[in-house]
Amino acid sequence: MQKKNTLIIVAHPDDEILGCGGTIAKYSKIQNISLCILADGESSREIPKKILKNKITKRKQMAEKAAKIV
């Protein structure tokens, strides 16, 4: 039997974990889960570009790490 494909769409990094992390963990055992994050969650804040770039990179890394765990 082929696994079903499921797409999780969220606004910002960490929304998938806070909103439905348990469900993702449960169904990832029997379905292929893909994640679409629409925004970086940082760029709407007024901070210097160098700091902003680092924050966005860190958020991306943390989201990827969380996805592997779940």
Overall shape: elongated
Largest sheet: 2 strands, parallel
Rounded to an integer, what's the Rg over CA atoms? 14 Å
Which percent bin holds the helix content? 40-55%
| Quaternary organisation of the protein chains | single chain
Extract low-pLDDT stretches. Answer: none
Order of helices and strands: EHEH
Instruction: For the record, give the distance between the C-alpha atoms at the N and C termini, rounded to a whole number.
Output: 23 Å
Question: Descriptors for this entry?
Answer:
single chain; 70 residues; alpha+beta; two-stranded parallel sheet; elongated
Detailed description of the structure:
A two-stranded parallel ribbon has the order 1-2. With 70 residues, it is an alpha+beta fold. The protein contains 2 helices and 2 strands; from the N terminus they run βαβα. The chain has helices at 15-27, 49-69; strands spanning 4-10, 31-37. The two termini are 23 Å apart.
Structure in a nutshell:
This protein is α+β, with helices and mostly antiparallel strands and 70 residues long. The chain has helices at 15-27, 49-69, and strands at residues 4-10, 31-37.
